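Amino acid chain
________________
===
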Amino acid sequence: MIKVLFLCHGNICRSPMAEYVFRDMVQHTSIPTAPFPGFYIASAATSTEEIGNPVHRGTRDILERHGIDPSEKRARLMTWRDYEEYDYLIGMDQWNLLNMRRIVGRDPDGKIWRLLDFTDSPGDIADPWYTGDFEATYRDVLRGCEGLLRHILGEEIYGS
């Protein structure tokens, strides 16, 4: 089982968007059963501000337009135990990475990444809470998730 945890500041915009996009991508991709027995995909926050709150309306609207229902998602806080539990801890921007390292300490296993590090143009995914541009965030999340899946599987099997 490959376990992926997406993280952002509040766990209501970018990280749940990535969680649900990646789940949908994995579900609709032909993945060989061996050596990849399956995925466990979740998301969390690096701050306590939104804990327990549902996905932001802007994220929910975009996901629903793509046939994805995030209504069950509630924001939760990342803990130091997540480092042991997950294979990949994927932040959306440099601030997320700093906060993730603050929570877990060192990263001896190299599990902490930014989502766009898996693309040909690494960088931060802008927070639509501030920009209001959920479409741009969705495009970046989609590119990052495609790159992450290629990285995990070691070959280009989704998209072109």
Q: What stands out?
A: The domain at 2-153 is CATH 3.40.50.2300 (Rossmann fold). Residues 155-160 have pLDDT under 50 and may be disordered. The helical segments are 14-27, 57-65, 81-85, 94-104, 128-131, 134-153.
